[in-house]
Amino acid sequence: MDVDKIYPANSSRSDIIAVGRICYQKNYERMLNIFSWLVKKIPSVQLNIFGNGEAEYIDSINELIVKNKLATNVFLHKATEEIGIWYSKSSLLMMTSHYEGLPMVLIEAQANGLPCVALDVDTGPSDVIVNNKVGLLLDPNENDEEIANKIYLYYKSLDADNTHAAVLNSQRFLIEPIIKKWLGILHV
Fold first, then answer.
1. Taking every pair of C-alpha atoms in the chain, what is the biggest distance, in angstroms?
2. How far apart are the C-alpha atoms of 123 and 142, rounded to whole Å?
3. CATH homologous superfamily for 3-186?
4. What are the domain boundaries of the chain?
5. What is the pLDDT of residues 105-128, one digit of tens each?
6. Per residue in 137-165, pLDDT tens?
């Protein structure tokens, strides 16, 4: 994680952000279906998706945006080195992956003071998000409307404490504490 590129949170944030390759693994179809329910509750909310991917898959996501009448709410962007600026303009990060390893994007977002919501798939998000304390883990077996309702309630409750908790939680993943833990394990 590049801590030199962390931007301070902006108190007037209102957008939701998603960051990652635009591919099947990230399950953007599900994200858009959930987000379409969220737009019914917050018509002005926007979702900015950042990532690169295969043109054919990106085209299918664009078609889904149009089909769900989300063209004024959802925007696809190419990956950027300046993602921290976008984190600072957002209120939360959303992740709907089918599967993950250690999702660095959750750590990066939290380091920028951004609370995260994610589907609680078998591995990944639960290693980073402390449910209902530092973000929200969502049951992937629930229907999209139920998930959207939970995100809505969480979104409406966001405050400076959530931002502070996100930053503190991300510090568990800084290199220095990890080195100290390994040295302790190895008794060096």
1. 59
2. 18
3. Glycogen Phosphorylase B; (3.40.50.2000)
4. 3-186
5. 999 999 999 999 999 999 999 999
6. 999 999 999 999 999 999 999 888 888 88
pLDDT at 180: 86
What parts of the chain have a pLDDT lower than 50?
A: 1-4, 6-11
- Look up the pTM and report it: 0.86
The token pair that represents 137 in the structure block: 């883990």
The DSSP secondary structure of the chain, one letter per residue, reads --GGG-----TT--EEEEES-BSGGGTHHHHHHHHHHHHHH-TT--EEEE--B-HHHHHHHHHHHHHTT-TTTEEEE---TTHHHHHHTEEEEEE--S--SS-HHHHHHHHTT--EEEE--SSSHHHH-BTTTBSEEE-TTS-HHHHHHHHHHHHHH--HHHHHHHHHHHGGGSHHHHHHHHHHHHT-
- Quick check: 105 and 15 in contact, CB under 8 A? no
Residue 110 carries which side chain, given as an amino acid letter? Answer: Q
pLDDT at 1: 47
Do 129 and 123 form a contact (C-beta atoms < 8 A)? Answer: no
- Tell me the C-alpha distance between 182 and 179, whole Å: 5
